[in-house]
Amino acid sequence: MHKLPLLFVGALLLAACVTGADSGGPVAVHADASLLITAARGSRFELSLPANAPTGFVWHHEVCAAGKQVEIGKARSLKASSGLLGAAGEERVLVCALETGVVRIRSTYARPWEKGVAPARDVLWTISVTP
Predict the structure, then answer these.
(1) What is the pTM of this model?
(2) Span 10-18, mean pLDDT?
(3) CATH topology of domain 10-130
(4) 3-class secondary-structure state, position 55
(5) Largest CB tally within 10 Å, which of 19, 45, 56, 115?
């Protein structure tokens, strides 16, 4: 299992969560995945992870708790800023904070057809949903 470089792992929070502003779009707030992410109940934010689709690896996201503190939405891929074919980009997955409490989301990076093989990367996010 490989550790993700701290520079590539981040959490994206909506501007309303970070600054109280009503911009309607996500603002990049890069953080170490081992840090606690705090989100207000009813808010939305994105988890951002490095990805390279041409390699066949994909991220799978799973809530590690019974309960409904968060809901994982659709993921989207962003191309590398270099514009080079096959260059690594990033994946962002939308998370909605529904109920107060602490929850963990496990993100694993693997090739779906490789059964019985450990993921190339494994990230455990801790999210605290506040009132």
Answers:
(1) 0.70
(2) 33
(3) Immunoglobulin-like (2.60.40)
(4) helix
(5) 45
